[in-house]
Amino acid sequence: MIKNDGFFSFYNGISASLLRQMTYSTARFGIYEIGKEHLSVHGEAVPFAKTVLVAGMAGAAGGILGTPADLVNVRMQNDMKLPREQRRK
């Protein structure tokens, strides 16, 4: 990779990877915290089963919101496998 595309070719797709991580993680943590606060009554602890349910729903929503950035990430990384004249950049 260094010989053909230079040292920075190791970082191809990192912007899409960071975008995916930010959208996925932010959504997942935000939805989880809001859901947990919504289920908490007068500051009491939320039962374990409800916590698992909220965590699963937050993870699913985060996955849905992070999918477009993940698709861009995969396409950017696979673009490097094409000859230079066929790359979409």
Task: Kindly report how far apart the N and C termini lie.
Answer: 17 Å
- Based on CA atoms alone, the radius of gyration comes out at 19 Å
Tell me the number of strands.
0
Q: H/E order of the elements?
A: HHH
The tally of helices reads 3
The helix fraction, in percent, is 55-70%
Q: Describe it for me?
A:
With 89 residues, this protein is mainly alpha-helical. It is built from three helices and no strands. The chain has helices spanning 2-5, 14-39, 48-79. Helix 2 runs antiparallel to helix 3 (48-79). It is rod-shaped. It starts with a helix and ends in a 10-residue tail after the last helix. The mean pLDDT is 86.
Write the layout of secondary structure elements.
Layout: H1 2-5, H2 14-39, H3 48-79
Helix pairs in contact: 2-3
Which properties best describe this structure?
89 residues, mainly alpha, 3 helices, 70% helix
Nutshell version of this structure?
This protein is an all-alpha fold and 89 residues long.
